[in-house]
Amino acid sequence: MNSSSPQFIITPQNEAHVQAAVICSRNLGLGVRVRSGGHDYEGLSYKAAGPFVIIDLVNLTKVSVSLDTSTAWVESGATLGELYYQIATRSSTLGFPAGVCPTIGVGGHFSGGGQGTMTRKYGLASDNVLDAIMVDANGTILDRESMSEDLFWAIRGGGGASFGVILSWKIKLVPVPPIVTICNVPKTLEQGATKLAHLWQQIAPKLHEDINMRVIITLANNTKGEKTAQALFNSLYLGTIQQLIPLMNVSFPELGLAAKDCHELSWVQTFAEGESVKVLMNRSHEIKGYFKGKSDYVNQPIPESGLEGMWKVFLEGEAGVMIWDPYGGKMSEIAEDETPFPHRAGILYNIQYFSKWEEAGVEAQRKHMEWTNNIYKYMTPFVSKSPRRAFLNYKDIDLGRNDENGNTSFSQAGVWGQSYFKNNFKRLALVKGRVDPSNFFRDEQSIPPLM
Ligand SMILES: Cc1cc2nc3c(=O)[nH]c(=O)nc-3n(C[C@H](O)[C@H](O)[C@H](O)COP(=O)(O)OP(=O)(O)OC[C@H]3O[C@@H](n4cnc5c(N)ncnc54)[C@H](O)[C@@H]3O)c2cc1C
Question: Ranges for the FAD-binding PCMH-type domain (predicted)?
Answer without folding.
Answer: 1-176
